[in-house]
Amino acid sequence: MTINNIYILFLIIVPVTMFSTGLFAARQFRPLENVPIFSLMYVKYRFLFSVLMGIFISIIFTMILSVSTEFSKQLFVGAVLFLLATFSYYYGVTLGWGRPLPLNENRILSDQDQANMLPENLLLENTLNSIKINVNSKKRWVLFVMSLSQWIVIGFCALPILGFVLISTAQNYLPKYMNIPVWILVGGLVLYLLYAKFRESLEYIFDKEIIEIDGFSVRIEKYGSGFKDIKEYPAENIKKITTMFSFAGTNVIFKRSPYINQSMPAFMMWHNHGLKRYRTFGRAIDLADAQTILEAIYSKFPQYRG
Question: Would the pTM of this model clear 0.85, i.e. be above it?
Fold first, then answer.
């Protein structure tokens, strides 16, 4: 396939990627159905938000096409990409979000939430000197396969094509002796993005997370499918620990949801230095249960309140 027919690959990449993106996004934010901003984005104005996503994707890919295609072909492919991106994302979000809960079921869940009982997959050990949280989540093989297929599409189609476009553009404006550094730079960036995306896919088959918090550090261990990841953060470098989406006025509406989120972390740990000022952890913890755990942390270690 020549560079002039690159748009054919885009017509395949866009619907697959946008459908899986909409599906994952909806499943991520389903437990936040009572937070106004997510209710507007994924329920009331779902189609409008999908149209905006379609416009954004169409503009990005049309700019890439402008390097190697004629103007009339750009407009036609851009219009097709807009329709594919819009409706693929819309149906992905619709499938991922599911049906709203009946009012009586919401009431029962709210009553259960008053009991402050942690689910079976979550064990909280509150000892004299530390708080230890054991989170056991099921391996999500279906989501892993879907994420891996998305990684394959992005890794073998979108990123290489975008890399070649960047390299060819740079070669037109830079001296010849810069060709090798440009190839190394762009190739390294592509490989890093592939590695980061693959690690993200592997998280769907991690089935255990252990968080140990004391007055000196926060230790986060992840286990699953033969992979092991242990990181420890000194207390002096931690500014505060909060729940996800802990902006004012939203905590009071969190209640235990039947749509337990197996992907979105429940906590955010803010750093005092470094390029990345936050670290997320605590997958498969309901946001209502996260509030209970956070109060226990604040009670024993008030310095993490910030």
Answer: no
On the CB side of 199, CA atoms within 13 Å amount to 9
CATH of 105-137+206-305, one of 2.30.30, 2.60.40, 3.30.1330, 2.30.29: 2.30.29
Within 10 A of 191 (CB to CB), how many other CB atoms are there?
A: 13
Distances 282 to 44, 109, 145, 219, 241 between C-alpha atoms, Å: 29, 22, 22, 12, 12
CB atoms within 10 A of CB 21: 19
Q: Which H helix or E strand runs over 68?
A: none
What is the per-residue pLDDT for 113?
45
The pLDDT confidence band at residue 5, using thresholds 50, 70 and 90, is low
Residue 216 pLDDT grade (very low, low, confident, very high; cuts 50, 70, 90): very high
For the CA atoms of 253, 259, 262, 268, the dihedral, rounded to the nearest 10 degrees, stands at: 0
pLDDT by residue (tens digit) across 76-112? Answer: 878 888 899 999 999 999 988 877 655 444 444 443 4
Q: 């009331």: which residue's tokens? A: 44
How many whole angstroms separate alpha carbon 240 and alpha carbon 233?
12
State how far the Cα of 208 lies from the Cα of 278, in Å rounded to an integer.
21
What is the reported pLDDT for 160?
74
Helix (H) or strand (E) holding 239: strand 238-243
